[in-house]
Target: Tensin 1
Amino acid sequence: MEENNEVDLVYITERIIALSFPGGTEEQKYSVHLREVTSMLRSKHQQHYLLLNLSERRHDITKQNPRVLDFGWPDHHAPALDKICSICKAMDTWLNADLHNVVVLHNKGNWGRTGVVVGAYMHYSNLSTSADQALDRFAMKRFYEDKAMPMGQPSQRRYVHYFAGLLSGHIKINNKPLFLHHVIMHGIPNFESKGGCRPFLKIYQAMQPLKCYHKRYQNPSRDVIFRVQFHTCALHNLALVFTKNDLDETFKADERFPEYGKVEFIFSFGPEKIKGLDHLQNGPSVSVDYNTQDPLIRWDSYENFNRRLALLAAPGRGGKLTLLSSVSSSGRKGCWVRPGDVGTPNHTHTCMHNRYSGNMKDWCGLDTGRTLKNGTKP
Model:
């Protein structure tokens, strides 16, 4: 293969290969490079390579390669924790089946997706393999820190941290449902020419990302103010704060989001209104628009997500913005506000239920004796 900037193939270790294409690669060029890479892999590894596709499902990948597993998720995002676990189990099973077996991590887009998998498997293999593979883990660590994560998003690093902490036991699984009562923005982003913004929130249950949008004034379009992913199974405090550097989209010098800005989430273990937090309500002059039928608000940026919640907002002028969100049992409900001194909806909440419980090692097919559940010794 000739070296070029339209395909990047890296042997992270002798048995873990990263195959990356830039997200903007033209389809014709991508197809040509994919055939070249496939030919090289077949020549060097014969039937001993397993390709894990971390991007969108593609027929040509499946057709050209002997063994393909699709684990794709949207670019610049973190995958669900159970998907991380499934990927690590698939890699470990394949690599343990034959010493000649190798894994190819295919990605079309940002290096962040590959980084999540390498970072997670680095921690997973620390429990499932022997100590003499320390050099491989060092190589994975170097790739993760030097090549992948500088291109990644804060939420991607956060999910690797979750996974590592849950595996090691440093983070205990919280299996209690949490009720989100308040989302507070400290510092008003400036998305309008005269300052301020017209925010609304959307929460997607499948991966639990929360996206805050700005609805442009007299313009049928929207801008992302920030995006963040977190998982309630790793939360044990009822208040969660993200600084600008912790938020996806904003952390790379977006001047519209103030440097001192932060976003605060306030939870409880029940749906009842939290006592002592009346000061977080907006004033009586707030005007709230409950029209959630607006196509701009309803438009789903994750086409493959079947279960989703649309959660919308309420601002005010001054040093902070309080976003109050809810979903009722009868369907979608919420509010977004127009700019200015705006008013408050009734008290609302959102239940964020965590389906994970038990021990993360058992959940991922590992036990404390470092023996895989299928009986395979590391």
Remarks:
- The radius of gyration is 23 Å.
